[in-house]
Write a structure and sequence with these properties.
The complex is a heterotrimer of chains A (201), B (71) and C (270). In chain A, the strands form three sheets. A six-stranded mixed beta sheet of chain A has the order 4-6-8-10-13-14, with no helix packed on it. Chain A has 201 residues and is an alpha/beta fold. In chain A, β13 and β14 form a beta hairpin. In chain A, 20% of the residues lie in helices and 28% in strands. Chain C has 270 residues and is α/β, with parallel strands linked by helices. Chain C has one domain: P-loop containing nucleotide triphosphate hydrolases (Rossmann fold), CATH 3.40.50. Chain C contains 13 helices and eight strands. Classes of the chains: A alpha/beta (201), B alpha+beta (71), C alpha/beta (270). Chains B and C meet through α1 of B and α11 of C.
């Protein structure tokens, strides 16, 4: 019998409601498309269709054997993400499993950064470029492309053209009023606070 | 002043003449007419007997060379 | 040391072929050996801009396939004995492009010429990828217009990731040419200025070529506009060629016809 053994990345998620689940899939497609989705909850026909339409692989209500290292717990709830918890539960693992990716040259149209950890963009990100990160994203120069993060925070200057998506929610560009904006969830509430470059260091 | 007008007229006419010659040679020169259709027809015929993976048709001097790669 | 310079843009119709022809001729007029190669398979047009279309007998693909030698296919320019030209093939079959064969041919060209200019096809498909594969440097031609700039950005990104030099970790020199610059529109704020474009593309500016009706007249006649000493576009190409061959030449930003108070008043009545 022919066999093959290999590892695959798993993204575990729970269904709260059909609508929020589908929204989450759409908003975070770039992040999850190369993962096997382990879905728990009430799987409706619409959800099945949607997953099939997007060619996403999934297993349903199946317990998976945990790897020897405890799986990085990333509690991403479609309705109320709690990134602060995530950081507290495994700070050491976070450094080991998700190194910081630094992009020091302009990110050009058509280029995509897909990273399991946090991303630091030192130069600009041009229209047509995308960043999808499991961790935080810090952008220090002009943002004209799309950034999606499900990490602790998202830090960007004012954005005229690009799309900023934090934990599945699109941030209105009008609300990014500070020279450097820190987008973060505090007590389940999305907040945008000013941050100075000194604070970043 | 009249020579300026004449020159303008001339350049468009020069372009037209050049294009006529260039396009005619494009259409008849070293090209094989109906190349794409020819390829399709040949593939159809051969597929009746064997599966085809690639086909190359070139003009070599006065003949056509056809190379068919079978699967 | 010979250089292979790819003339790229991403978007079509912005002036790659015109630029290749004029900059190539400019280099030759500076007494350097230069060859311009039409890499747009199936869409031969560098020959028409140079006025050499009736001299084309053999093409680049026939050279790569070993049917004819490089010397048999190369065409000497009427305007300068230092400028030669290698035509594109007119067959649609883009699969004829083979990296090994291209590499060999370019190596042979480098041995004969100091400057090898490659006129890339529009787009970012395989034809384009083959053109940039062996590039030492690139001239990026852009129009001050959003889709041209975005497409050029894309093309630069691919150059920086897929060229042999980039893969080896070396830097491919990139020079920006802003073509069809309309100073009046820029002054009125209706067109992006050079600063805006440089900010987005982040590469070195090597020249600004103004919008010039003479360019069409020139291609009608098959006489590249650099040969017209009165044409502004021609002068710009001359400066670009100088800079490319190492001479210092200031970047001239074209001035609006109606600049200054009196100019603006004049403009209101015209």
């Amino acid at each position: 019998m022919k066999c093959k053994q290999y590892s695959v990345k798993v993204f575990e998620m729970g269904i709260e409601s059909q609508a929020s689940f589908i929204d989450f899939i759409d908003a975070n497609y770039e992040l999850i498309k190369n993962h096997l989705l382990s879905i728990h909850g009430n799987m409706t026909e619409s959800i099945k269709e949607h997953l099939e339409k997007n060619s996403l692989s999934y297993i349903h209500n199946t317990a998976l054997p945990l790897p020897k290292k405890a799986a990085k717990e990333c509690i991403i709830d479609a309705t109320a993400p709690k990134p602060e918890e995530e950081v507290e539960s495994s700070p050491v693992e976070e450094i080991q499993e998700s190194p910081l990716k630094v992009q020091s040259t302009p990110l050009r149209s058509g280029q995509l950064i897909q990273h399991n950890g946090s991303v630091l963009l030192i130069d600009r990100i041009n229209s047509g470029a995308k960043v999808a990160a499991m961790g935080s994203v810090v952008a220090l120069d002009k943002v004209e492309g799309d950034i999606s993060s499900v990490g602790e925070c998202l830090i960007v200057p004012p954005v005229t053209r690009g799309n900023i998506i934090f934990h599945g929610k699109k941030i209105e560009n009008e609300s990014l009023i500070y020279p450097l904006n820190k987008i973060i969830y505090i007590n389940d509430e999305l907040q945008i606070k000013p941050i100075s470059k000194k604070e970043l260091a | 002043m009249f020579s300026w007008f004449k020159r303008k007229d001339k350049s468009a006419k020069i372009a037209k003449d050049r294009l006529k010659i260039a396009i005619t040679s494009d259409r008849t020169g070293t090209e094989i007419p109906f190349l794409e259709d020819l390829k399709e027809d040949i593939i159809k015929i051969i597929r009746k007997y064997k599966d085809v993976s690639n086909i190359d048709i070139r003009k070599v001097n006065d003949s056509i060379s056809i190379e068919v790669e079978l699967r | 040391m010979s250089k292979i310079i790819a003339v790229i843009s991403g978007k079509g119709g912005v002036g790659k072929t015109t630029t290749t022809a004029n900059v190539g001729l400019g280099i030759a007029l500076n007494r350097k050996q230069c060859v311009v190669v039409d890499f747009d398979i199936g869409q031969r047009n560098l020959d028409m801009i140079l006025g050499l279309e009736n001299r084309v007998v053999y093409d680049m693909v026939q050279v790569m396939d070993g049917e004819v030698t490089l010397d048999q296919a190369l065409i000497k320019s009427k305007a300068s004995r230092n400028l030669f030209f290698l035509p594109a093939s007119q067959t649609k079959d883009k699969s004829v492009l083979d990296s090994e064969k291209i590499g060999k041919m370019l190596q042979e060209l480098k041995e004969k010429f100091e400057y090898v200019l490659l006129d890339a096809p529009a787009g970012i498909e395989s034809g384009f990828e083959h053109t940039i594969e062996f590039a030492d440097a690139a001239l990026v031609v852009v129009n001050p217009e959003v889709s041209s700039i975005r497409d050029s950005d894309r093309a630069i990104g691919i150059l920086d990731s897929k060229s042999k030099k980039a893969i080896a970790g070396e830097d491919v020199e990139k020079f920006l040419i802003i073509n069809r610059f309309d100073a009046d529109m820029v002054e009125k704020g209706e067109m992006l200025n050079s600063e805006d474009i440089l900010d987005i593309l982040s590469i070195e500016l090597i020249g600004i070529v103004p919008e010039d009706r003479g360019v069409i007249d020139a291609s009608n006649q098959g006489q590249p506009i650099i040969l017209n000493p009165k044409a502004e576009a021609g002068k710009a190409y001359t400066r670009i060629a100088k800079r490319l061959t190492g001479e210092k030449s200031p970047i001239v930003e074209p001035r609006a016809k109606n600049s200054g108070i009196f100019g603006k008043l004049k403009g209101m009545f015209s």
